[in-house]
Structure formats: structure tokens, C-alpha cells
Amino acid sequence: IRFNNHEHSRKIKAWVQDNRTYANLGKCANYIPALERANPSQLGICIIGSNGSMVKMGDFDTAFTLQSISKVIGFIAACIDYGISYVLERVDVEPTGDAFNSIIRLEVHKPGRPFNPMINAGAITVASLLGGRNPVEKVESILLLIERIVGRYPTINEEVFHSEWQTAHRNRALAYYLKEMGFLDCTVEEALEVYLKQCSIEVTTEDVAMIGLVLANDGYHPIRKEQIFSKEVARLTKALMVTCGMYNASGKFAAFVGIPAKSGVSGGILAAIPPRGRSGDSPFMDGCGIGIYGPAIDEFGNSVAGVMLLKQISREWDFNIF
Ligand code: GLN
After folding, report:
1. What is the pLDDT along the chain (322 residues), one digit of tens a residue?
2. Using CB atoms within 10 A as the burial measure, which of 20, 42, 139, 229 is most buried?
3. In the record, which residues are listed under signal peptide (predicted)?
4. Cα Rg for the chain, rounded, in angstroms?
């Protein structure tokens, strides 16, 4: 990896400064007590290009928990372990337009298969079928996949995990319903342990950017020079990110930003920018991964300043995939 100190670093610096002011329009998630203590005015970004160039700006070094971004990794891990068709027997690939933790459609969509793996019902189902005989081994399959991508075995933030565990009433309700419908491969408590631990994995914007980079390159890791997962899994995952990755703001995000992305309530955003044939003066023609952290989130659960920053970058550098 080489650091870039050119023209575009100066541009990103200015964009981070400008968009940081939007943080005022959001608030840190407060339903998980440990997340409420984040500094709402932070905004940081890391971009890693397929050619190994890297730009980091703002509060790029703050550690944060993956939260819903882990749904992407869990889905990929399950597809690696069991194959796409097995996973899709348990979870569909349709957006809902409802909140991430919504319970309402489970019964509507006969025979109860969760709509997609990017909402809680789908992610809890996927967590339950991960490879491993117990919750520790199932979480391990996610941790090991992250290690293969970022080159470091990540830790779980135990405080966030316990905080979530004690307040996961709605997730428990979802899991009990899923269990009753026969979608879970383990007990309710085991599925919740896996799901909430994967949400509590601690990362920085660089880790997230590296995951985005591999997705941008269809599962190939251009820095480690290794195919981590198949092109089919990468494409399916990016399609899910475009249609369902930004919760029930995914439509607007696709329309006005146009980048496969996944957000989490801690304020993280994972984005994958595929190689572009023609990209104005973008320094990332060969594709890149982006990790953003901005803990002040909007009513949907997306980082307010983070979305605005991505929107500006997409516009300036012609990153819109459509
Ligand atoms: N742990 C969180 C939950 O299930 C993750 C949600 C999110 O990031 N949207 O409530």
C-alpha cells in the first residue's frame, strides 16, 4: 500500500471538512447504550484503490463496531460455507422498504422466508446457518474471513455486545418467530449470540475499505493477490447492497449516489466502487473500496455526514455505477 499525497488528497480533505457540518442533522444511536457515547461530530474516511494507493482523512482511525455492515460479511461467509443456492433457500433477495428491524413482513411473505440478508430477520437467519457447531465457531467463520481480507484478526467489543444482548428484545422476537417457522439452524439464544457478536466486531475505516476493495474486484484481493470468494458471491452481495444496503433509504441512495454500499447504526459505511472505463479526473479508475465513519445517523440509521460525503465523492469522481 502506498499513501497518496496529491491533488486528490487535498480534495478529500476539503470534502470531509465541508460535509462534517451535516453531522448536526443526526444523532448517535441511543438504543444501544454503548453506542450513544460516540462523538457525533466525527467524520473519517479511508479509500483504497485496486492499484494499492490509499487516502485517509479526518477521523479515519476511530475504532467502531461493524453493526449492520457485518450482515455483508455474514452473508459472504455463509455462501462460502454452503453455496449460494442453500443460503437462498433460507433468505430471499428482495428489498422491503421497511426499517431494518421490522417484524411486519415476516408473516406476509409466505412461507415466512425473510426478505433479504441485509435486514435483521435475514441476518439472524444467516447467522444461524454459518459453518460451526456452536456460536463461538460460527462467529469464528466471520472473524477468519475478515482476517483473510484485512490481514488482522479482529476483536469483539465485549461492552457493545453485552449492551446489545441486554436490549435485544425485538431481535429476540424476530428470532423466536424465525425459529417457529423452521428457519434457524440452532437455538434462538445461539443465533442471537452469533448475530450480536458479529455486530460487535471492532474495525476502522481502513478495514472496511479493504472489504469494499475485494467486493469491487469481484472477490479478488488485488493487494494480497488472492481470490477470497467467487465472482458470483461478490455480484450477488453487491446487488443486495444496492437494493437493500442503506435500509429503507436504499432507493434514494441508489438514485442519487449510485454506489453499492452497506451502512451500520454505529455510523460506518462500506462502499465498493467497481473499475470504471471512463471517470473524469478520478484517481481510482481501477476501482476502490471505501470505509467511512460518522456516528451521527439519520432516521433510517445511516450516517448523515457519511452519506453526504459519499454523494459528493460519487458526483465529483463519477463513481455512480448506473
Ligand atoms: N445490532 C444492531 C441491531 O440489530 C444492528 C443494526 C444496524 O446496524 N442497523 O439492532
Report:
1. 676 657 788 999 999 999 999 999 999 998 888 889 999 999 999 999 999 999 999 999 999 999 999 999 999 999 999 999 999 999 998 888 777 777 777 766 666 688 899 999 999 999 999 999 999 999 999 999 999 999 999 999 999 999 999 999 999 999 999 999 899 999 999 999 999 999 999 999 999 999 999 999 999 999 999 999 999 999 999 999 999 999 989 999 999 999 999 999 999 999 999 998 665 677 898 999 999 999 999 999 999 999 999 999 999 999 999 9
2. 139
3. none
4. 18
With respect to residue 223, please indicate whether it lies within any of the assigned structural domains.
yes
Residues 44 and 19 in one domain: yes
Same domain, yes or no: 107 and 184: yes
H or E element: which one contains 213?
helix 205-216
Domain containing 81 equals: 68-199
Ligand 1 mutation pick, 164, 192, 193, 202, max ligand atoms within 8 A of CB: 164
Active site residue 230: no
Contact indicator for 259, 273 with CB cutoff of 8 Å? yes
Ligand 1 first shell, C-beta below 6 A = 67-68, 100-101, 120, 164, 171, 199, 264-265, 301
Q: Are 61 and 210 in the same domain? A: yes
Nearest CA, atom 4, ligand 1: 120
Write down the ipTM of this complex. 0.93
Residues marked as binding for substrate?
68, 120, 164, 171, 195, 247, 265
